[in-house]
User: What shape does this take?
Amino acid sequence: MKNLAPVLQGLGLMTMLFSATMLVPVATALWYDDGTFHAYDEALLVTLATGAALWFATRGSAQELQPRDGFLLVTLVWSVLPAFAALPLLIHIDGLSFTDAYFETISGLTTTGASVLSGLDELPPSINMWRCLLQWLGGMGIIVLAVAILPLLGVGGSQIFKAETPGPMKDTKLTPRITETAKGLWLVYSGISAACVVSFRLAGMSWYDAVLHAFTTMSLGGFSNHDASYGFFDSPLIEAVTIFFMLVSGINFATHFTALRARSLGPYRRDPEAPWFLIAMVGSVLVITAYLWLTGTYSDALTALRFAAFNVVSAGTTTGYANTDYGLWPVFAPFTMLLLCVITSSSGSTGGGIKMIRTRLLAQQGMREMLKLLHPQAPAPIKLGAQVVPNQIVFAVLAFMSLYGASVTVMTMVLLASGLDFITAFTAVIACITNTGPGLAQVGPATNYASLTDFQTWVLALAMLLGRLELFTVLVLFTPAFWRK
Assistant: This one.
């Protein structure tokens, strides 16, 4: 790759676009007069000027982005934008280091929800608005948003879209033009988000809380403006509304798009992931409910159901909300929830993890291998619905799973070597690479990541980036073949 000008030009344009999103917390700061206007004023100018400088320096480049350029641009955008997003936090919050500010904002944009901040209830409204807005933007992907706009500015977007979107959406266009696809997804995302805001308000939240929690529910991000998260509201109705919208966001947004366009529930029945995702969620809630009741954690089944339903769905969809400290539950329950955050969310949803479609393919491949032991000549094709899955895709899933397991193992060992105990190290890596947020022990739902060292924080920031971009997009940059012409 000898000519990086198209990549840098794209980065400059996206940085300028990103600076415009700071107008939302600016308006919030003015509305509440919370004394933070100067922080966004300075951050917006720095972000806009940097983006403009990159664009100006590469304005003579007219080359179309190549597929490999998309991988580099996506990784740069998701690595660089959190640094600009951190500026308001650095300017306003005394004593906050760049490491912690960057961790907070990359956690926001990757919709992880791991936090190093405490005293959230006392933070200015605009700061919490900015944290939650970052998750909403990251939910569908600021890259996909840019795909709808960059063609108007002379930069092709299809390579970016394929590099950023997960799973089967990479090669599926819902509309004939990639720009229309991105716009369609954002319209669905925005429309359901608006419905979520209204539902929260009707359930008893203030408009401010409703907007913030709609941002972080639709993105499956999990940030809150309260230290107690959903324990602050202590409302079964609010929790029920949140469960519904978490489940909606855990399903492929392409399926929502198709269902709304067809005005039919048929696309949900035909979706290769949605029924299994819902079965996994409902089944896990019932199992954990029974377990908590039978072990005496809660004295009655209804209370056990309330807390199990909210926290299991929150973890299983990689949201990370909590209405109680489930780290104190008998160990079977929280570790089951950690397993769910790895395997259940749908591809094309705003959730993290390996995605349900890969879980299904992996399970079917295991069954096929056992069948081959008994009947070596049997064809035994792997199918999703009526469609036969090519072996090439199965092998790619196996490679992804191997790399995923290796990444978790390596980062866990690195954290162990840095002095963390095993439970904290392992669950922190799982929680960050699946973009879930809370782990257990030192990083449990009742605590946060503030106790970690700078080195440990950067390791977990990398885990968030790897999880959000599904490993290959980032790791391919470290192969010699990528940089050869």
